[in-house]
Amino acid sequence: MMDFFVREARNVITGPMAVIRFGTCGGLAKEAGAGTVVVADKGAALITRNVDAFTRYYTESNDNNDTIPHADAYTLSQVCPAHAGLSSILSQELTSKLGQEKVKFGINVTGDSFYSSQGRVDDSFVDYNQELITNYVCEKLPTAASMEMETFNLYHLALCSAKQPIHASAAAIVVANRHSADVADGNVINDLECQGGEAVLATLAAFEM
User: pLDDT tens across 89-123, in order?
Assistant: First the structure.
């Protein structure tokens, strides 16, 4: 959907664009607790399921107990940078609105699935993703702080905009922390959506293109 949004918006907007993705995520860093907001100021990486690692199941029974290493079953991209200027203003506005203790920073990891590439184990499918987050993603990217499904695609397309610039940044409310399994209260999320949304709008108003 992010691919669709960016390409369609670029097609109908004349001149430079500034885009901030503000939504929800899981917290990968221990300090990115439930009810905090993570700014992906250090960029984003993409983790995708390597479908060709599973071709044995095209011809064999899927009750096979073999395992596939994470590095074979999943592909982790290089980090795509955020726009530094836009991210800086966004960080300032969020900190001003929410307080320093509520705003965290780091790399975002974008999954191509809500389940397999985000390390959610589902016994109904063969995914080879047990401990994918702790033993692969966080080892490769020790400053990874958030995980969702949109940010990398926004950053990547922004930097691949050929005719007019797209300036992109992102922040997300941590609904649940992947280490502690703590989950944010619904009222907390609602408050952060409103206050964080105001900070995003203030950022876009202040940013000079």
Answer: 999 999 999 999 999 999 999 999 999 999 999 99
Range list of β-strands (E), 28-135:
37-39, 44-49, 74-76, 103-105, 107-111
Task: Give CA 108 to chain center in angstroms.
Answer: 4
Tokens of 98: 């929410």
82 vs 181: CA distance, rounded Å:
28
Its pTM stands at 0.93
Q: How far apart are CA 194 and CA 204, in angstroms?
A: 16
CA count, 13 A, side-chain hemisphere, 96:
12
Q: What residues contact 128, with CB distance under 8 A and at least 6 apart?
A: 53, 67, 68, 70, 73
Tokens of 179: 């280490």
Instruction: Provide the angle, in degrees to the nearest 10, between the axes of the packed helices 84-98 and 186-206.
Output: 130
Cβ neighbours of residue 207 under 8 Å, at least 6 residues apart? 18, 85, 86, 89, 167
Residue entry with tokens 């209260």:
185
Amino acid at 137: V
Length of the chain: 209
